[in-house]
Amino acid sequence: MYAENEILFPPRSIPHLARARGPRFRDLVDRVIALPPDHPDALAFSLMMIRLDGCLGCETDSYRAMKGCTSCALQSLRRFKGSDQELLLRFRKALDDVRAYLAAHPIPETVDLPLPAKAA
If DSSP codes are grouped into helix, strand and coil, which group holds residue 120? Predict the structure, then answer.
């Protein structure tokens, strides 16, 4: 009954957005899908879409959620009254926010996981 959806805009939806706007937006999508999902540009794209889609106010039983994240994102992009240039400015703002967060909260290069104790 429910579409496959997430709590926040998922990176798996990004490739589906390439043709939703003009060539400048398509170039951004093409650049982002070539990156790993934890790259700052990919994180910034998701953050931009979270803000544009209103993901923080989405309820799992809402009509938007039942349609699925990709459909919601496509609808948000089609309804956006601004230009592709304005979307790129929103992306830049999201990228600045991601970079500021990562600078304040550095991710360690390696993570030490505790090993399970040997059975006696």
Answer: coil
